[in-house]
Inverse folding.
């Protein structure tokens, strides 16, 4: 079950905690993986960690429109096609709503939402031809719950849910599924930096009483990318330890 | 009938799974040939591949019949 043997996948933001975990899990399931990110060294390190086989580095800064346009063609060329797109790349520019700069709003919407739109539009073209595809968008629990200080981020992540549903409806007849994963608090360099009090405050809101692991989000991505999930589309899968039961 | 017309009709027959005699120049993809809007996008993609041309979105919107496609491709393909 859930084998991805021979499937060709592009994972954006692969140098981040979640993106790296997803790339590792896809690779372990047998997929050919194109890993994209802004930091070349980190991409090369991930490629080396995975042994170099079935791993392609395609550098791209998703804040750059031209780079976004070039990414899917580059991944298709490297992989010889594209079956699975994971829109994982994301940035935060947190600020109180009343203090939020237009640039903070715009940059988060551009990378977290508009890039996902453009990459999906490009990827789905080839998927329609091949009558097979999986798009997995990485959202966030705050797309459903909101979060003080993250008006831009919450809006972008909620936007991904709408994008997911609309695209899912359009391409379902072509055997392409489009789904979203909404992680809660996942252990990462960002959560490692929290002090004990902050950490306890967060964990008090999580019935599971612990942070999630990147691998637990990656497992959800493997499922949604698999053949077995072929009848699941337009869905948002929450991976949050019960902190919001939606 | 031109070579372009033949190739266009062949693509339409294959893609929409309709009988060849229904694919006349006046046939509207959606009204007469049972295409949905996504089929029309795919047909344009198929024409682009077959004739090695790029069909911009505003031109694609004007291609509603088999004849529209033939006319466009006669004018724009090498």
């Amino acid at each position: 079950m859930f084998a991805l043997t021979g499937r060709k996948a592009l994972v954006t933001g692969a140098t981040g905690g979640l993106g790296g975990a997803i790339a590792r899990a896809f690779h372990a399931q047998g997929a050919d993986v194109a890993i994209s990110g802004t930091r070349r060294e980190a991409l090369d390190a991930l490629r080396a960690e995975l042994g170099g086989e079935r791993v392609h580095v395609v550098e791209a800064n998703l804040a750059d429109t031209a780079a976004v346009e070039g990414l899917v063609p580059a991944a298709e060329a490297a992989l010889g096609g594209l079956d699975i797109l994971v829109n994982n790349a994301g940035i935060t520019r947190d600020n109180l709503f009343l203090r939020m700069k237009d640039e903070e709003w715009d940059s988060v919407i551009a990378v977290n939402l508009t890039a996902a739109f453009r990459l999906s539009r490009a990827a789905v073209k080839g998927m329609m031809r091949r009558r097979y595809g999986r798009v997995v968008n990485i959202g966030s629990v705050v797309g459903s719950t909101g979060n003080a200080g993250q008006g831009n981020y919450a809006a972008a992540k909620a936007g991904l849910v709408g994008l997911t549903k609309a695209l899912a409806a359009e391409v379902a007849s072509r055997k392409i599924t489009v789904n979203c994963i909404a992680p809660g608090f996942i252990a990462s360099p960002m959560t490692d930096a929290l002090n004990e009090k902050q950490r306890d405050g967060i964990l008090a809101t999580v019935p599971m009483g612990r942070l999630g692991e990147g691998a637990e989000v990656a497992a959800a991505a493997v499922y949604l990318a698999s053949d077995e999930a072929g009848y699941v589309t337009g869905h948002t899968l929450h991976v949050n330890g019960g902190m919001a039961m939606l | 009938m031109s070579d372009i017309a033949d190739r266009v009709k062949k693509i339409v027959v294959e893609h929409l799974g309709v009988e060849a005699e229904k694919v006349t120049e006046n046939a509207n993809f959606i009204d007469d040939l049972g295409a949905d809007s996504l089929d029309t996008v795919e047909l344009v993609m198929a024409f682009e591949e077959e004739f090695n041309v790029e069909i911009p979105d505003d031109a694609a919107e004007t291609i509603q019949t088999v004849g529209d496609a033939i006319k466009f491709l006669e004018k724009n393909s090498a």
Summary: The mean pLDDT of chain A is 96. Strands of chain A lie at 8-11, 32-35, 55-57, 84-87, 133-138, 176-183, 236-239. The first strand of chain A starts at residue 8 and ends at 11.
